[in-house]
Design a protein that fits this description.
The chain is an alpha+beta fold. It contains five helices and four strands. Strand 2 and strand 3 form a beta hairpin. It is globular.
Length: 169
């Protein structure tokens, strides 16, 4: 395994342990915000700036009902953990967040997961929302990823163009 992949996997494991601890401590839904960045380069100045702006938009959109517990910008990709101040159930909170993702200019690249106190997740398809679409061809993203339909560099460049335009860079 190469060093970069090991670093990404280690960072995901650390995020998972933090999530479990937040869920245990707060006994409510925890929101995990991350970015969907194709390829091995998960963070740079553009991704970090876009993530900061997305979190600001999320705060405005939810009327500051999400309390930020932690945010970080490691090379493995930016992330943030939030608690819902309104105490919504996991389904209700996920609906709000999917609607935000669908309306947001770069919502395709943000992932707002909702985890219940038992760490179970609510998927967008469970709630009747469409699955994520491919950045390039609008087919289901999972289908294109599984078949490796598009070169990673092409997906990465399309992502960077969208995030640069959004972040004003």
């Amino acid at each position: 395994m190469d060093a970069h992949l090991a670093q990404v996997l280690e960072a995901r494991d650390l995020r998972w342990r933090k999530l479990a601890e937040y869920c245990r401590l707060h006994q409510g839904c925890v929101v995990v915000a991350t970015m969907n960045i194709p390829g091995p380069k998960k963070n740079n100045a553009v991704v970090s700036r876009a993530f900061e702006r997305i979190l600001q938009d999320l705060e405005r959109e939810t009327n500051a009902s999400l309390l930020c517990l932690e945010q970080d910008f490691p090379p493995s990709g930016p992330y943030a953990f939030f608690l819902d101040r309104e105490g919504r159930d996991a389904d209700g909170l996920k609906r709000v967040l999917v609607e935000f993702e669908l309306r947001h200019p770069v919502g395709r690249w943000v992932d707002l997961d909702v985890r219940a106190s038992d760490l179970s997740a609510v998927s967008r398809t469970q709630l009747g929302f469409p699955e994520r679409r491919c950045i390039l061809c609008d087919r289901p993203a999972k289908e294109c990823a599984r078949s490796r339909r598009h070169p990673v560099e092409e997906l990465y460049q399309a992502t960077m163009r969208a995030l640069e335009a959004y972040a004003g860079m």
